[in-house]
Specification:
With 332 residues, the protein is α/β, with parallel strands linked by helices. It folds into two domains: 183 residues, 3-Layer(aba) Sandwich (Rossmann fold), CATH 3.40.50.720; 117 residues, UDP-galactose 4-epimerase, domain 1 (Alpha-Beta Complex), CATH 3.90.25.10. Helix content is 36%, strand content 17%. The protein contains eleven helices and 15 strands. The strands form five sheets. Strands 3-2-1-4-5-7-12 form a seven-stranded parallel beta sheet, sandwiched between helices. Helix 3 links the parallel strand 4 and strand 5. It is globular and about 65 Å long.
């Protein structure tokens, strides 16, 4: 596909969407953002469509008759969920498409035994209890059904943990808040649980690459740094980037949960959503078919740290739960 495409970004005002829109604008694309906000960070550089992508009737009305060549569907409503039906409504409303790039997730895979999974790995079922994993898997199945029935030009991308400047989740910042305040870092269990990452700008680059390769149509891709790190290694890298020596305290998960620590909401014991059973991804397909390579992980975190240090209006971090926990266990 040629550069300077007419591109629609569904959700282009935060994190992944911003990284993607920046790249599209830099190469000369005509970019339209579909989103709920009244304004965008890009001013007159983009066209803006104010629309709730979860409102199926409004999406169909808004997009029917549009002439976008590429759609990047990368938004998920964390409060209400975004279902396969809502994704398909957008997909089927755009009739002149050359590519529909859907952001899925590593969470769509069935949990395994920490062995690496390639793109042929099974996805979770339609009855899976985690709505995020279920909605991503069901959306992929629906989009690939459209491809099988009509040749719909879908590509799905499955990232692991996404990091980088402007991350709205309390992840890298969680650790730097503590490291720079010389707070102990709690490590769940023995710290050996593995994690895999991808920089937001790398993911945006992969999404664009997926529009440029004829091989990509009808395919899914794991978009990740090929090397996983343990939770303990992650904290050491974050500390090295910040120029401090970490103090690590290892506490078993059962105790952390019993004492009120949480994964999905405060008080977090190891950042937001960062202590999950690992699903590790093989990345050869993206490398061979898209020519995609992820940046060095530590260099990518350095980008994040520079952004973190520039934020002057951060809310003061609350260490009270951790301090109470350590005091109760006589560990710090």
């Amino acid at each position: 596909m040629n550069f300077m495409a007419s591109s629609l970004v569904i959700g282009g005002t935060l994190f992944l969407g911003r990284a993607l829109v920046r790249r599209l604008l830099s190469r000369g694309d005509q970019v339209t953002i579909l989103h709920r906000a009244k304004t965008t960070p890009f001013g007159d550089s983009v066209r803006s469509i104010q629309c709730d992508r979860n409102d199926i009737a409004l999406v169909i009305k808004t997009l029917t008759g549009s002439n976008f060549e590429v759609v990047y569907d990368n938004v998920y409503d964390w409060q209400r969920g975004t279902t396969a039906e809502q994704v398909v409504a957008a997909a089927q409303s755009c009739k002149s498409l050359k590519r529909y790039v859907f952001t899925s997730s590593v969470a769509a895979y069935c949990h395994g035994d920490a062995r690496e999974v390639d793109e042929s790995g099974p996805l979770v079922s339609s009855s899976h209890p985690d709505s995020y994993a279920r909605n991503k898997a069901e959306s992929e199945r629906s989009l690939f059904k459209l491809h099988a029935e009509s040749g719909f030009p879908v590509v799905t991308l499955r990232p692991p943990y996404i990091y980088g400047p402007e991350n709205p989740f309390y992840r890298e910042s969680f650790f730097w808040d503590r490291l720079l305040a010389f707070q102990p870092i709690i490590i769940p269990g023995d710290g050996s649980r593995l994690m895999q990452f991808i920089h937001a700008d790398d993911f945006a680059r992969a999404a664009i690459l997926a529009t440029e390769s004829d091989k990509a149509v009808g395919r899914s891709y794991n978009i990740a740094h090929p090397t996983a790190v343990t939770q303990e290694e992650l904290v050491h890298i974050l500390a090295r980037v910040a120029g401090v020596e970490p103090k690590l305290i290892f506490i078993d998960r059962e105790t952390l949960i019993e004492k009120g620590g949480k994964v999905f909401e405060p008080p977090y014991y190891f950042a937001q959503y960062f202590d999950m059973p690992p699903i590790l991804q093989k990345t050869e397909r993206a490398r061979s078919e898209l020519g995609f390579e992820a940046r060095d992980f530590e260099k990518g975190l350095t980008d994040s740290f520079f952004w973190y240090r520039r934020q002057s209006r951060r809310q003061a971090p609350d260490f009270s739960w951790e301090n109470d926990l350590l005091a109760s266990l006589d560990l710090g």
